[in-house]
Design goal:
Layout (H helix, E strand, L loop, with lengths): L1 H22 L3 H10 L4 H28 L6 H16 L10 H4 L3 H30 L10 H17 L2 H15 L6 H12 L1 H14 L2 H29 L9 H17 L8 H12 L8 H25 L5 H7 L1
Helix pairs in contact: 1-13, 2-14, 3-4, 3-11, 3-14, 4-14, 6-7, 6-10, 6-12, 11-12, 11-14, 12-13
């Protein structure tokens, strides 16, 4: 019963945090800005279209990665899996639900490997972009001297990729973890983890194989190209929303600033225990803008509209996947794994 209540409690905490952020940043001006955004229907429409386009590229990226991993799904099967994965990932803490969906939908080890590698690559990309954008906005000191932060991110990525791209390394690490956990197997969470690992031991081989396939130079290069397209669409959408909601002020709204806002929001959602990062994402981005000398209430309307459009897009894609997607049949699932 307590486990079932925990997500509700986190959502309540997120809603309370969001309410506090709004109440602390002149809600009357936020409401005025949201109302004024209706005077810019073209900007709002373009923002919506760009968000849908970004989600479509996410779908194509997932489809291509599945093929690289040796899971030859047709586009309708990918739509069915991806639309559910995106919905569950959006509304679970840290998007953790993405990793469970492929198994629950009979996608097996290979598609779980796609979800795992995709999650690692996307998170590292977002963190690196966020650090780089923050460094470019610093007004004091030598920015070049602070690029070590980006270097550390890429070093961590290289280490993770090295482990995942060599099956023997991954198996050795898992064996060490199992040996360390066995003395504590009477603890319920530890026992559950060991039981799950034993249950899916056969599928782990396919997960390793998918990881190795996805971490080749050709697949990484194509992943990076598609992420560039996705980020360009998302940043342009955010820029349109900012222009529609933020009144002209003393400081210019630069492209780098928008990139930093998008990256900060994405990182906050990824690390937040609150589903969808509700409240925590807005709090983090507003704190960033306050540090840069912008009034907090100026960007809250953009953040609220962006969240609304993102969630509606994900939900519509889910219904599209239910209507036009195709489930993995038993035989097809075996082949895909």
């Amino acid at each position: 019963m307590k486990r079932k209540l925990l997500p509700i409690l986190w959502l309540a905490a997120g809603a309370a945090l969001l309410g506090w952020v709004i109440a602390s940043n002149r809600p009357d001006r936020i409401l005025d800005a949201l109302t004024a955004s209706l005077d810019h229907p073209v900007l709002l429409a373009v923002a919506v279209l760009l968000t849908f386009a970004a989600q479509a590229v996410f779908l194509v990226k997932w489809h291509v990665m599945a093929h690289f991993a040796g899971a030859p799904l047709d586009l309708r099967q990918t739509l069915h899996v991806f639309s559910t994965l995106a919905l569950v990932g959006t509304f679970t803490p840290g998007r953790a639900g993405e990793l469970a969906v492929p198994l629950l939908m009979r996608g097996g080890g290979r598609l779980t490997g796609v979800a795992l590698v995709n999650r690692i690559l996307e998170s590292t990309w977002t963190l690196a972009v966020g650090i780089l954008a923050a460094l470019l906005m610093l007004e004091s000191g030598s920015n070049l001297g602070r690029l070590w932060g980006v270097g550390l991110v890429f070093a961590a990525l290289a280490g993770a990729m090295l482990v995942l791209s060599r099956r023997r390394y991954t198996e050795a690490i898992l064996a060490a973890v199992r040996a360390a956990l066995r003395p504590m197997s009477r603890l319920r969470p530890v026992g559950w983890l060991l039981a799950m690992e034993e249950r899916y031991a056969e599928g782990l081989g396919r997960l390793y194989d998918a990881s190795v396939r996805l971490l080749r130079l050709d697949s990484l290069a194509l992943f990076g190209l598609m992420m560039l397209v996705i980020w360009l669409l998302v940043v342009l959408s955010s820029y349109c929303l900012i222009r529609a909601t933020v009144p002209p002020g003393d400081k210019e709204i630069t492209f780098v600033l928008v990139v930093a806002a998008v990256a900060t929001s994405a990182v906050a959602i990824s690390v937040s225990p609150i589903p969808a990062g509700l409240g925590f994402s807005e709090f983090t981005v507003v704190a960033l803008f306050l540090q840069l000398g912008y009034p907090g209430e100026a960007f809250l309307p953009y953040l609220l509209l962006s969240r609304l459009i993102d969630h509606v897009t994900v939900i519509l894609f889910y219904f599209l996947g239910r209507a036009a997607g195709r489930e993995l049949p038993a035989a097809g699932a075996a082949a895909a794994t």
